Amino acid sequence: MYDKNMLLDTALVARANAYAPYSKFKVGAAILLDNGKYILGCNVENASYGLSNCAERTALFKMISDGYTKNNVVAMAIVGDTLDVISPCGACRQVMLELLKPDCPILLCNLKRDMKEYKVIDLLPYAFSEKDL
Ligand code: THU
Question: For 8-46, how does the pLDDT look when each residue is reduced to its tens digit (9 = 90+)?
C-alpha cells in the first residue's frame, strides 16, 4: 500500500511547475518509487501545439532517464482541474502500458481531492504492445 494523500500532494507540487501558456490547463504527475523517492512531472506546452508533452509522459520519461524501471514503481498519481478525476489521454495510456507494470496503480485525481484508482491495464484494454511485434 501507499499513502494516497501524500502522492496526490506531490502531484500538486508537480502541477505548480506546469508550463501551459496556451491551454492554461495545468497538470501534475507524481511517481512513487520503492526507495521512497518521487519523480515529478508536469505538462510542457509549445507554440507549435503538437510538440506539447503531457505531465504523465514527462514523469515517466524522467523516471527512465534517471535509471529506474517499472520494477521500481509503487504507484503514479495524476491531477488536474477537472470536474471528475482527470482522464489521461490515449498517448499517455499507451506509454504507461509500455513503461509500467500492467497492475501498477494509477491514482486519478482533481483539485477537490477526488481520487479514483485504476490499474494500468484497465486504462487501455486491447492495447497494442511488445507482444504484438
Ligand atoms: N494534459 C496532460 O498533461 N495530461 C492529461 O492527462 C490530459 C492533458 C495536458 C496536455 C495539454 O498541455 C493540456 O493538458 C491540455 O490538453
Answer: 999 999 999 999 999 999 999 999 999 999 999 999 999
Max alpha carbon distance in the chain (Å)?
42
User: Is there a contact between 41 and 28 (Cβ–Cβ < 8 Å)?
Assistant: yes
Ligand 1 in contact with 56 (CB < 6 A)?
yes
118 within some domain: yes
Q: What is the CATH number of the domain that holds 57?
A: 3.40.140.10
Q: Into how many domains does the chain fold?
A: 1
CA gyration radius for the chain?
14
Specify the pTM: 0.98
98 is catalytic: no
Does the beta carbon of 27 lie inside 6 Å of ligand 1? yes
Contacts of 58 (CB under 8 A, 6+ apart): 29, 41, 42, 43, 44
CA of 6 to the centre of ligand 1 (A): 22
